[in-house]
Design goal:
Blueprint lengths: L22 H10 L12 E2 L2 E6 L10 E3 L5 E6 L5 E8 L8 E4 L3 E2 L6 E9 L15 E9 L13 E7 L6 H6 L5 E7 L6 E8 L3 E14 L2 E3 L2 E3 L2 E2 L8 E4 L1 E2 L3 E2 L5 E4 L5 E5 L3 E2 L3 E4 L2 E4 L4 E2 L9 E2 L4 E2 L9 E2 L24 E6 L4 E5 L11 E8 L7 E5 L3 E4 L7 E10 L2 E2 L6 E4 L8 H29 L12 H9 L20 H8 L8 E9 L4 E7 L7 E7 L6 H14 L10 E5 L6 E5 L6 H7 L6 H20 L12 E3 L5 E3 L15 E2 L5 E2 L6 H6 L4 H16 L11 H9 L12 H10 L10 H13 L14 H7 L11 H7 L6 H6 L5 H4 L4 H7 L4 H20 L5
Antiparallel strand pairs: 1-2, 2-13, 3-6, 4-5, 5-13, 6-12, 7-12, 8-11, 8-13, 9-10, 9-12, 13-16, 14-15, 15-18, 17-20, 19-22, 20-21, 23-24, 25-26, 27-28, 29-30, 30-33, 31-32, 31-34, 34-35, 34-36, 37-38, 38-39, 39-41, 40-41, 42-43, 44-45
Helix pairs in contact: 5-6, 8-10, 8-13, 10-12
The chain binds 2',3'- cyclic AMP.
């Protein structure tokens, strides 16, 4: 009970305080328990804090020890729920030499090596004490003692380690008591690193007037979270206040990763800096931090794909969690088709026409089916004499015509034709019946003549086949040729064997004197015949100019003139003129034409035909979206034709790219850039590989990058990339992905997605050019043939690549940016906290994700996004989307 020695008078008791108590405490209760609620009990997690002790939530005896007996005393108050309020007070301010200790019971640290102690207390202002100033203190001390068990409490005072002297931010006076204003102090101290299993705390009073209202001891942890589909477990923070603990996450069920994701747990119990992520494996998609199986009728082929996608037309799934959809009966999909492609069936051939009919042969022709499911590889023609179906003949042909010979005169034959694509054979056409001509009065001698003629012809054909085969070293690709004479014939008719007499390219290196090579292949032009008009660009060796060439007796021509800069070395001169030595060997409408060279005077020059529209990539970028599909295919046809010529000549280009194609005013494309050394010094796109070669990575076939296997087949790969550049109007292949990422993605089987609005037949051809197995890629003559067919039959270009597999569409509907799915520009901008620009984007026509995908930095500036940070945020986000799309696209 308060006595005369006690400085504070008892304040009025709140009605819910049932037991008598010292004055000091009662006032505390006013503020401490306004609603009568207490914190949760021991061991509960408060955010990222885990309590080891909370004196206010201990229901029974705290078990703390105070000595001497007249020092700290516990006030036995209870709250309105009769729960004890463990408060200790001491107030021996009038007496000299106070040393009052209060020891807690043993507190386990539960594995934490850094703990926090939160004290709530009130402290009396010494100035407000009448006569107490001499001895009164306004601080107390806090200590700890570490021990593995509970037997350490009786250790000597001097074995305790001081944590700190605790002073009050606010002390109270008599006046405060009168006003019932409580000045409760909260102080937090931390201790670490702890090395034992637990510890005691001790509070030493040296003559203050204190009420220790609560003591809470806790450690901090980063609580278990799921981030980027990885579970990061509860993690106790490190011993050091600035320590970041690296924690490995484990992928949630049905998710996978190449590299385990990591995150850092800060000393404050916050998760920071997530690195890496898990992806729902094929057949599963992300929903609320889990991976859920794709439903029936949906599939997901790759972990990188964001969502399960509806099965494309004519396909289905039998079970949930499908990674691909199965084709319905009689429908097919090529092995190289992406699983997003519809399954199709060839429409049968309907239009079979009879051509020349003789007594022993009938010629037939037909039209390609309207909607073949892929590129037609060949036709199979089955025929037999009417009513003799058990004995029939099969001819395979790549062309849409054949001649069936060896037939009986005046006999009716039945013909059926079917097409084969990579998906297999389509159905046979209906039966067509044609009759051979009758024999007119033939003598036995006369009947011998055709037999001899046929034998001679067959002999000549076979001889040509063998010679051609030996000379060309090329396989025709029909392995059954030897068993089936008809195939051999077809093989011959299809011209797959290079016949003797085709000119081949001669490497100028084989000339001892390079000057001799130049003059063998290039005409010397008098400098006076050339008038230079303007500089149009810069080449590796000097300026490129446009001008006019007037050779006496010939028409004046516009020309491009490449000059060799002054001060060149002998090697530079040789390399410079080397291009002319190569170019001069070619004569083809789709290869840049060499007019001649100037070597006898300076500057040394190479004069070529002038191409008004310059290089193809720049031209397409300038005229984005301006051409019809037929015009684009026409350009591609020209390039393929030029390349066929080069490959027939045995010349491997190695740097086929839209930047190395020139285009004239009639939109005729011509292959250019025939460097002699072929180390591509002049190509800014060429990068050094690990093997030291300089290679334009994005355009180059994997085998050429990996082991320098440059062949016409690797040129075909590059041609596929050129197709992609052309159809996307000069877009940079693989956008801003790094060369290393491109190599990795291509090695892993990913391919560029279809450009926007790309005819399916063209994209199919691109994918064929990007076959990993170089022997499976089409040859340039086949490419020319396919493009010719497309041009002849423009309706075949109407089918565009299935929208769901197009990059732009994916950007719009299934954008894998971050973890989000953005269905609108607004949603996307909001997600990257750039929502303020939504209106500007919409007003300026960037209202779809398709349109947004084309945004450049210049566009952003024009739109008024002037802050560099915002520009970066938007561009990075777009970039990330594009890269993820490449990663997520078209596995072969
Ligand atoms: O894109 P361009 O205008 O087309 O810029 C380059 C530049 O010279 C450096 O190579 C242009 N160029 C090169 N050869 C010719 C040519 N035969 N006709 C027209 N322009 C050419 C090329």
């Amino acid at each position: 009970m308060p006595g005369s020695g006690r400085p504070s008078p008892p304040p009025p008791r709140p009605p819910w305080v049932l037991l008598p108590s010292p004055a000091l405490l009662l006032l505390l209760l006013l503020v401490l328990l306004p609603g009568g609620t207490l914190r949760s009990g021991l061991d509960s997690a408060v955010g990222s804090e885990v309590n080891l002790l909370d004196s206010r939530s201990v229901m029974g005896d705290l078990g703390w020890i105070a000595y001497p007996k007249n020092g700290w005393e516990e006030i036995g108050e209870v709250d309105e729920n009769y729960a004890p309020i463990h408060t200790y007070q001491v107030c021996r301010v009038m007496e000299q030499s106070q040393n009052n200790w209060l020891l807690t019971s043993w507190i386990s640290n539960r594995g934490a090596s850094r703990i926090f102690i939160e004290l709530k207390f009130t402290l009396r202002d010494c100035n407000s004490l009448p006569g107490g100033l001499g001895t009164c203190k306004e601080t107390f001390n806090m200590y700890y003692f570490e021990t593995d068990d509970e037997d350490g409490r009786n250790v000597k005072e001097n074995q305790y380690i001081k944590i700190d002297t605790i002073a009050a931010d606010e002390s109270f006076t008599e006046l405060d008591l009168g006003d019932r204003v409580m000045k409760l102090n909260t102080e937090v101290r931390d201790v670490g690193p702890l090395t034992k299993k637990g510890f005691y705390l001790a509070f030493q009073d040296v003559g203050a007037c204190i009420a220790l209202v609560s003591v809470r001891v806790y450690y901090k942890k980063c609580p278990e979270v799921i981030r980027n589909l990885a579970i990061f477990p509860d993690t106790i923070t490190g011993a050091d206040s600035s320590q970041l603990l690296e924690v490995l996450g484990s992928c949630v069920n049905h998710s996978v990763t190449d590299e385990p994701p990591r995150m850092h747990c800060s000393a404050e119990g916050e998760w920071l800096v997530p690195i890496g992520k898990c992806m729902c494996k094929a057949g599963y998609e992300e929903k609320n931090n889990t991976c859920q199986a794709c439903q029936l009728g949906f599939f997901k082929d790759l972990p990188q794909s964001q969502r399960c996608t509806k099965c494309p037309p004519h396909s289905y799934t039998r079970e949930e969690a499908s990674t691909t959809c199965l084709c319905e009966e009689h429908y097919f999909r090529k092995d190289s088709d992406p699983p997003t492609m519809a399954c199709t069936t060839p429409s049968p051939i309907t239009n079979v026409k009879k051509g020349k009919v003789a007594k022993n042969s009938i010629s037939l022709s037909w039209q390609e089916p309207d909607r073949p499911n892929g590129i037609i590889l060949e036709y199979e023609i089955k025929y037999f004499e009417k009513d003799q179906e058990t004995s029939y003949t099969i001819i395979k042909s790549k062309e849409t015509k054949i001649t069936a010979d060896g037939l009986k005169p005046a006999s009716v034959y039945v013909f059926q034709i079917r097409a084969r694509t990579a998906a297999g054979y389509g159905g046979f056409s209906r039966r067509f019946e044609f009759e051979t001509s009758p024999v007119l009065a033939a003598s036995s001698d006369q009947t011998q003549i055709p037999i001899i003629a046929v034998s001679v012809t067959v002999g000549v054909i076979l001889l040509a086949v063998v010679i051609g085969f030996l000379l060309s070293g090329r396989r025709c690709g029909y392995s059954k040729a030897k068993q089936d004479p008809e195939e051999e014939k077809m093989h011959f008719h299809n011209g797959h064997i290079k016949l003797p007499g085709v000119r081949t390219y001669i490497d100028p290196h084989t000339y001892e004197d390079p000057n001799q090579a130049v003059h063998e292949f290039a005409k010397e032009i008098e400098a006076s015949c050339i008038s230079i008009e303007r500089v149009i660009g810069a080449g590796e060796f000097g300026e490129v100019c446009s001008g006019r060439l007037k050779i006496p007796g010939k028409r004046e021509l516009p020309v491009a003139i490449k000059t060799l800069k002054v001060g060149y070395t002998e090697k530079q001169r040789r390399d410079f003129l080397g291009e002319a030595s190569i170019m001069g060997q070619f004569d083809h409408p789709n290869i840049i034409h060499l007019e001649g060279v100037v070597t006898k005077s300076k500057p040394v020059m190479i004069v070529t035909e002038y191409m008004e529209n310059g290089s193809l990539d720049t031209f397409l970028k300038k005229n984005d979206g301006q051409f019809t599909v037929i015009q684009l295919v026409g350009m591609l046809r020209g390039i393929a034709s030029g390349m066929k010529y080069l490959s027939d000549m045995g010349y491997v280009h190695r740097d086929l790219a839209a930047r190395n194609i020139l285009i004239n005013s009639n939109l005729v494309c011509k292959v250019s850039d025939f460097g002699l050394s072929r180390i591509l010094e002049d190509d800014p796109e060429a990068a050094y590989t690990t093997r030291g070669g300089k290679i334009p990575i994005r355009w180059t076939a994997p085998e050429a990058i990996a082991f320098r296997k440059f062949t016409s087949a690797s040129d075909v790969w590059s041609y596929g990339i050129v197709m992609w550049e052309v159809v996307s109007y000069g877009e940079r292949p693989y956008w801003e992905m790094t060369n290393q990422d491109v190599i990795k993605a291509v090695e892993e089987g990913y391919r560029l997605p279809s450009p926007m609005d790309c005819p399916a037949a063209l994209y199919q051809l691109m994918l064929d050019c990007w076959q990993k197995d170089r022997n499976s890629r089409p040859k340039f003559d086949e490419i020319v043939c396919i493009l010719d067919k497309l041009i002849r039959n423009p309706s075949s270009l109407k089918t565009l690549v299935n929208a769901s597999s197009r990059v732009s569409n994916l950007l719009g509907e299934h954008s894998p940016l971050g973890n989000g799915v953005y269905r609108s520009v607004g949603e996307w901008l909001e997600a990257i906290k750039m929502g303020r620009y939504t209106e500007i984007f919409m007003e300026n026509g960037y209202s779809s994700m398709d349109a947004v995908a084309q945004v450049t930095l210049e566009d952003l500036r024009r739109l008024g996004v002037t802050l560099v940070g915002h520009q970066k945020k938007i561009m990075n986000s777009l970039q990330e989307m594009k890269v993820q799309l490449v990663n997520g696209m078209v596995p072969l």
